[in-house]
Amino acid sequence: MSWMELSLDTTNEAVDWVCTLLATTNYTTDIRVAKYTELTQDVVESSWAFTICFYLPNDAYASIRRSEIVNLLSPLERTGLATALQTAVVKEKLARADIHSPEVRIGQRFVVLSPDAHYHEAADEITLRLKTSLAFGSGLHPATLLSMQLIERHIIPAMNVLDLGCGSGILSVAIAKLGAQVLALDNDPIAIESTTDAVERNGVEQQVTIMEGSLGRGSDLGHWMGGDSLNNVPTIEPTASFDLIVANILTRVHIALVPDFRRSLRQGGLLIAAGFTNDYEEAVTASFLDERFEVVDCERLNEWVAIVFQNKIPDF
Question: What GO CC annotations are associated with the protein (predicted)?
Fold first, then answer.
């Protein structure tokens, strides 16, 4: 049997979203994610961070499925977040270079598992089961790791939490398993589908409300990952109803939404801001400080940063 080998390069920001998109097709569960390497030594600096490779059976349906995947990923290529899809026909799949252990450990308590993994959960552990491609695609991304470390540290049972840009759903599930109530919000229907799958797979339906929409003026920013224009996406008005917001989103969206974040949080509420590197830390932090937030916690991994801001209680 021969295989159609498909590959593309992505930025740091887009790798999780590419894995999420591919997982929704159900054409392959064998998605390999590796660090990007230059083919020549002449390139001084590249925006690409990861290479994603996956395979389709080279049968009568291969070309149709490839076309569907190209259409799915085209917004990312158009906005410079990923390269065009490269195609080759091979007799065998490449040996995996990124062999994973059966679980991914994050923070002190979280263990991310594939759906069928056999695992005996310790008393102090919290297991999260995701589609294989999502579990190990998300687990690679520093922004996800940092967000989960800070979630573990700051979530208190019975909190009312907003997961803005819920994507694969991993953060919503983690928050729910820590005992909070979650509104999982995203402006893309594919993210809503992925989050719904993750929530149902982990049995936290009673704690997570999933909604397609944006916060405040987020609807004016278009699709955050360059997808088609948003049509009649509901807007969640900021009404000081959340104890904590986790936002693993693009830098420009963070900066644009800071006033809405402040109005959405109760006095003394927390916001976990992730999804940006230290190149943008000063700009993101300044935009929050201008709206009377203060920095109360921070985690770093390589060049990636996640910051906890608190909505300051006014001085009287």
Answer: ribosome
Q: Which residues contact 162 (CB under 8 A, 6 or more apart)?
A: 182, 183, 185, 215, 236, 242, 244, 245, 246, 264
Q: Give the torsion through C-alpha atoms of 74, 225, 186, 255, to 10 deg.
A: -170
d(CA 127, CA 77): 34
- Distance from first CA to last CA of the chain, Å, rounded? 74
| Structural contact between residues 182 and 207, judged by C-beta atoms closer than 8 angstroms | yes
Which H or E run contains 68?
Answer: helix 62-78
Q: To the nearest 5 percent, what fractions of the chain are helix, strand and coil?
A: 30, 30, 40
Token pair listed for 280: 């943008």
Q: How far is CA 236 from CA 162, 167, 204, in A?
A: 11, 17, 22
The domains of the chain, with CATH numbers, are: 3-90 (3.30.70.120), 142-311 (3.40.50.150)
Q: For residue range 40-62, what is the model confidence (pLDDT) as tens digits?
A: 555 456 789 889 999 999 999 99
